[in-house]
Amino acid sequence: MRPTLWSIGLAGATLLAVLACRDRPATQSRQDAAADAEVPAEIDSDAQLLSRELFDIVDRTMSYASSHQNRLPSSLHTLGIDSLTAITARSLTLSGKTPLVTVVFRRPGGRSVTSCRATDEILEESMMRGGQFTVTCTLPTGEGRPFRVIRRGGRL
């Protein structure tokens, strides 16, 4: 049986797919290594809690924009989201075409972080890093620090 052009193309496509799906080499790119170096390895439970709300609000903000001709919502009210919950206060500010979402604990006493904030970049980062993304949180001392949080199975 002679190989046809179709079977040769299929074999080539299979080979490319196998090569593309190989495990990443043990060494990371310099950029990934630098990003990993500045983010603590531990996952803070308070940062994780705030990141759930951040991710949901950022996701809903960008979904709104995609269905409204790339026009970002002017407020959380436009999205149908309350700015206050029993535990947190949330805000949405726009800097040009970049939404900035901030979630603050209403009663920060005893918490390891008082607030966290993020832009729409967390959506891409979550997809590229297997559910992990970085948020910037404010500690009770007033210092800002990045935290890596994990989004598993579509949920935080």
How widely separated are the two ends?
A: 54 Å
Oligomer: single chain
What is the total tally of β strands? 5
Question: How are the strands of the largest sheet arranged?
Answer: 1-2-3-4-5
Structural class: alpha+beta
Q: In words, what does this structure look like?
A:
38% of the residues lie in helices and 22% in strands. It has 156 residues and is an alpha+beta fold. Strands 1-2-3-4-5 form a five-stranded antiparallel β-sheet. Mean pLDDT is 81; it is low at 23-41.
In short:
The chain is an alpha+beta fold and 156 residues long. It has five helices and five strands; from the N terminus they run ααααβββαββ. The radius of gyration is 21 Å and the shape is globular.
Architecture blueprint of SSEs:
Layout: H1 5-20, H2 30-37, H3 45-67, H4 76-79, E1 88-95, E2 98-105, E3 115-119, H5 121-128, E4 132-138, E5 144-150
Antiparallel strand pairs: 1-2, 2-3, 3-4, 4-5
